[in-house]
Amino acid sequence: MESTSVIWYIVGLLASIIAAYYALNAGANLWGLLFIITAFVLALFIARAARSLN
C-alpha cells in the first residue's frame, strides 16, 4: 500500500529532475524555471493522488 505511493513519488521526482535537466540545457531562462516549477508541482500532485488512492 505504502510502496505504491513511494514508487509514484520516485517517478515524479525523476520526472522533475529530467525536466530540470532539459530546462537547463535549453538555457536557464524564465520559461525553463516555470517548466521546472510546473514539473515539481505535478510530481507533488501525483504523489498526493497516489497516497489518497491507497
UniProtKB/TrEMBL annotation:
Sorted alphabetically, the keyword list is: Membrane, Transmembrane, Transmembrane helix
Question: Would I find Transmembrane helix among this entry's keywords?
Answer: yes
Residues annotated as transmembrane = 7-24, 30-50
Q: What is this protein called?
A: Uncharacterized protein
> Whose protein is this, by species?
Salsuginibacillus halophilus
